[in-house]
Amino acid sequence: xxxxxxxxxRTKSPLSAAAPAAxxxxxxxxxxxxxxxxxxxxxxxxxxxxxxxxxxxALKTSLSDNGVAALGATDILKTWNPTLHSYAALFQAGDIxxxxxxxxxxxxxxxxxxxxxxxxxxxxxxRLKFRGQNVVFLLIILGIMIPSQVLIVPIxxxxxxxxxxxxxxxxxxxxxxxxxxxxxFKQFFDGIPKELEEAARIDGAGLWKVYWxxxxxLSRPVIAAVIIxxxxxVWNNLLLPLFVLSNPNLMxxxxxxxxxxxxxxxxYADIQAGALLAALPLVILYLAFQRQIVEGITGSGLKG
Amino acid sequence: xxxxxxxxxxxAAAPEARPKRHSVLxxxxxxxxxxxxxxxxxxxxxxxxxxxxxxxVTSFFNTxxxxxxxxxxxxxANYAEMLxxxxxxxxxxxTLQFTLYTTPPLVVLAFFLAILTNRVRRGQWFFRLAFFLPxxxxxxxxxxxWVFIFTPGSGLWASAQSIFGITPGAGVLASPNTAMIxxxxxxxxxxxxxxxxxxxxxxxxxxxxxYEAAAVDGATTWEQIRxxxxxxxxxxxxxxxxxxxxxxxxxxxxxxxxxSGGPGISTSVALTLVTGTGFTDNRLGAASAxxxxxxxxxxxxxxxxQLVDRAAVRKxx
Lengths: 304, 317
Hints:
The complex is a heterodimer.
Chain A: H1 6-9, H2 18-28, H3 31-62, H4 66-71, H5 73-78, H6 85-93, H7 95-127, H8 133-145, H9 152-161, H10 168-172, H11 179-190, H12 195-202, H13 207-218, H14 220-236, H15 239-244, H16 253-260, H17 268-288, H18 290-303
Helix pairs in contact in A: 3-17, 6-17, 7-11, 7-14, 12-13, 14-18
Chain B: H1 4-13, H2 30-58, H3 77-84, H4 86-119, H5 124-132, H6 139-149, H7 156-163, H8 179-205, H9 208-216, H10 221-232, H11 234-249, H12 253-258, H13 270-280, H14 284-316
């Protein structure tokens, strides 16, 4: 189920193929099938509404007045007087700009380094032969089994020892060795026909040229998937930045929110606005790159 | 010069038993290969393998944040302490409790909703959006949303309880008996989408002809699900289950943000104990010992997964 299937998978993506796939079965269905379909649709709609309620309620709260929000859920739902006051207050207070900057910089830099380094390693593993290859494979399998969360204590010690605590690097560096990214790249590279690079090699291209000018341009879909998944993962990470950053100006947005949450007191509308602002870039990213995100997740989930 | 690589390639490939796989670039690429591996390898050693080894080492010492260096040798004292501490076992129990609360709904509900969504002909995008969107939200966002929903007395949860005639109590997160249930509900809402898309992907791998043949033979919709879908998705289910268990063992964010392990230590989990021992009590050696114990459990499950996977492949072959 390797990523050798990745190029083909695009055509039968979970996002595009389902609708036509369901049709022929439906056409053969009798009355019992039709009743079943109607019941399914109703049950499904109920669940979908239940699933949307928390987000919609948070949105409604964030658009309410802090005074109304403090009265409770019924007042929030009853009162229709939307205001962007909470959002304006957060942006005026200013912290959130620093947090956006920290989240943005750490996510982008980590994603860039991960894509570059993981694809280079995958290129070596997929295309080159060298002594010790089996040891490298073993180490990679081992790396997949070790969850980084468990390493928070030694990583904290290490970053302290090299004076990197309270820098963006302390959030970036530990998240670069995402072993799963090497796997994703390797399986994609394995599926690329070798004739192309043979031609390049015969023309005298070096290894770097083959990697950079032949393999990478053919790997745009998988590069996009790894960039997006790394970006989302770093943006959402709480544990690492929580302990390696103590300067409020450097905090990423989830850590910043978690830290100042207490000082908001009864300003519930502001809290919900903050919660949604922390998620906003990811929601935009999701809406723009639904296919890559879902495929990246099913791809890495099936292998990881 | 242009012919040289091709020649070396042939020469190198000939003595090999499996010449195809690496035929393109082989001898002379050894140094190049290590250069390509070096950047990732450096980070791997510095932030994955290195810390793991260091964690094992410090787990045998009285390392502390207030002194530099390893501190005095402790032998197995850190392990003995952890295994003898009541809060170690209660955090393990809470982790298990969380796993038991979240896994069945996350597997069964995701399966059920994926089957239904797969049958819908129009508006599938809406259901995908509804179920998957929470999954990409940061843990901080979902925690702030759910803490507010669980506000005692006037929150959305309490209001819903009143509508159904239940008297809202002190609040879901405020009582030691229900706090973990509250965290579990928020988590189910948050991560269901992940299993949902895995199941949808699995469903779409099932050849349509199977259903058509069954329908021709007069199988009802229910029989089709029971005898085609369910067995063919068993591999996905195993995967989902194991991913779910490992994810549950690593739970930290929701607990830290929603209850900080409280009330009391009623929702304290493995990583709460690790970070509490390490960063609040400053006892890095003891925290490392707890981390090592957690890592052993996680690796054991990963190995079980490999074995199950291999058995499944053998059965299929």
